[in-house]
Every structure is written in C-alpha cells, then in structure tokens.
C-alpha cells in the first residue's frame, strides 16, 4: 500500500472493565475487549485501509497490563505521510480518553514486523497482599489490583523452592486450563524467571496501617492459557502449607491439566502483564532507497 505504515504500539489498561485484551466476537454480548477500543480509536484517524490490530499477548478478563503491545497498518488519505510517533500517541489517547486504556509508546516498524511472533519475552507480575479478610480493608489503589489473603504469614522459602522447580524447559500441561486452543498449542515452554520478592501498596505512605505485599514475577517467551494464574495458585498453596513442594513437583511431572487441584488458580485481579520485549534490530526501519 502506498504511503502505508506499520506501527508497533505499547499500551496499558485496567482489565476490570474489559473482556480481555483481544477483540470480542460479534456473537458475544456485554464487555468489549481492549482491542475493540484501540481499533475504534485508530478508525477515528480516518485511514483508508481496513483497521485490524494484532495483539502480542492475550490477557483474560480482569487481568491488567502495564505494557502490552500490538501492530497495525495505517494508510492516510491523499498520500499524506505517516504519522510521527509522538503525534500518533497523542491522537490515539485523545480518542481513548473515556477508557481505562492508554497508549504509552509507538514505533514505526518494518512492513513484515509481527507484534506476537517477534516478541522475545513476556513478563507477568502477580501481586499478593496478606492479612485482610475482605477487599474493603485495602486502600482503593490496591483493592482491585491484588489477591488479598487471610494469612498473615506465608512460607516464602518453600514457595521459592517450588518456583525453582518451574524454571527451565518443561511440559506445562498441568498448568494450563482447557480452552479451544488446547490441541494446537505446544505445552513445552521455557520459563526463564520465577521469582518471589517483597512488594508494596501503591499508597503505602498514605494508609493507616502497613500491609505486607509479595510480588511473583514470571518471564517466558510465551505462556499457556491461564498458566501464570495456576502457577501462582499452586505456589500460594505451598506457602500456606496446603501443598508440599514434592506434591507440586508431582503435579508438574504428571503433565495433565486434570492433575491440577480444582479451585486452586489465583484470581485475575492480581495479575499484571508488565513487559513485552523485542530485539532492537527488529524495530529498525531499513534505509530508504533513493528514487531512481
């Protein structure tokens, strides 16, 4: 397409009001996906080509993102040149102003760039808060953005021992939920990072009591459906003494989604997609050849 440009955008969203990151099927009613709103914003720029985003990382209803990504093509009317990156950020955010979605960065990328397949890694962080039996006991900045546990203490060393078992190349079939992609997705994944570190409230300095927070961080090139939430749920069960480290190892080695204990998965609200990383060279436009 003449004067068509492919863009990679990075964007944030609060997942509570959206039915996940990707476009909602026309047959579904209710909430829209984040992709639906982003595509609506792009259409308001009046491109002459059909608008279709390819989102790098699908997140479920209720899962948040501090940095998801997507690519799309945009061709302007009357052979106008491509939008500068900063102009496109401002224009899209103007049209998204009523939504809990923000575009944070834009790159003009090569025409064959693919946001999903060129991603080198994805990082998720899961936030856990201790010592509150109801979400109303948390500050407003945290109540919908963490998993509040009754426990005032977790055996974090046991959790770290369990997390170490998950790092590396494994068949993670036991940690994926059943969905329509099940027959087509390779369950063998390489988990590069599974760490458990102290966290904090978003408004710790302005709240009347201290709440212990923990953050579980996972990095891999890709994840299976609900894999992170199921790993978190199992590790929390280890920390609570409801599951032993050898039992966690057995679940992993059984390679069967039915081996995962029912009702153990962590809720969506504590999960954040925090990074999607690319090679710098994949983002670079090649030098333009002079017209003959």
UniProtKB/TrEMBL annotation:
Residues that bind substrate: 124
Q: Supply the EC number(s).
A: 5.4.99.12
What is a biological process (GO) this protein takes part in?
Answer: tRNA pseudouridine synthesis
Which UniProt keyword terms apply here? Isomerase, tRNA processing
* Top-rank lineage group of the source organism: Eukaryota
Q: Please give the InterPro entries that the UniProt record associates with this protein.
A: PsdUridine_synth_cat_dom_sf, PsdUridine_synth_TruA, PsdUridine_synth_TruA_a/b_dom, PsdUridine_synth_TruA_C, TruA/RsuA/RluB/E/F_N
**Reactions performed catalytically:** uridine(38/39/40) in tRNA = pseudouridine(38/39/40) in tRNA; a uridine in tRNA = a pseudouridine in tRNA
Looking at the record, the residues that make up the Pseudouridine synthase I TruA alpha/beta domain are 11-117, 163-278
Record-linked SUPFAM superfamilies: Pseudouridine synthase
**Protease is among the record's keywords:** no
Recorded GO molecular functions are: RNA binding; tRNA pseudouridine(38-40) synthase activity
Where's the active site on this chain? Answer: 60 (nucleophile)
Q: State the family it belongs to.
A: Belongs to the tRNA pseudouridine synthase TruA family.
Protein name as catalogued: tRNA pseudouridine synthase
Organism lineage string: Eukaryota, Metazoa, Chordata, Craniata, Vertebrata
């Amino acid at each position: 397409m003449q004067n068509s440009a492919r863009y990679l955008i990075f964007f944030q969203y609060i997942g509570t009001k959206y039915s996940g990151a990707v476009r909602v099927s026309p047959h579904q009613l209710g909430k829209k996906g984040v992709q639906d709103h982003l595509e609506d914003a792009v259409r308001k720029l009046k491109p002459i080509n059909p608008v279709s985003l390819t989102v790098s990382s699908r997140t479920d209803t209720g899962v948040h993102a501090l940095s998801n990504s997507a690519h799309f093509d945009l061709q302007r009317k009357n052979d106008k040149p491509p939008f500068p990156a900063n102009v496109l950020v401002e224009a899209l955010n103007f049209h998204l102003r009523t939504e809990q979605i923000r575009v944070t960065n834009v790159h003009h990328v090569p025409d064959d760039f693919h946001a999903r397949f060129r991603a080198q890694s994805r990082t998720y962080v899961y936030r856990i808060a201790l010592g509150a039996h109801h979400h109303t006991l948390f500050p407003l900045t945290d109540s919908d953005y963490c998993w509040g546990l009754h426990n005032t203490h977790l055996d974090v060393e046991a959790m770290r021992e369990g997390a170490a078992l998950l790092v590396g190349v494994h068949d993670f079939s036991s940690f994926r939920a059943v969905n329509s992609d099940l027959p087509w997705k390779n369950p063998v994944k390489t988990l590069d990072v599974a760490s458990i570190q102290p966290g904090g409230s978003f408004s710790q300095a302005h709240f009347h009591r201290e709440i212990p927070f923990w953050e579980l961080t996972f990095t891999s090139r890709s994840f299976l459906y609900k894999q992170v939430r199921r790993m978190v749920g199992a590790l929390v069960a280890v920390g609570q003494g409801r599951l032993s480290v050898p039992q966690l190892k057995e679940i992993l080695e059984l390679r069967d989604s039915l081996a995962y204990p029912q009702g153990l998965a962590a809720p969506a609200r504590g999960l954040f997609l925090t990074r999607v990383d690319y090679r710098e060279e994949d983002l670079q436009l090649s030098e333009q050849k002079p017209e003959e």
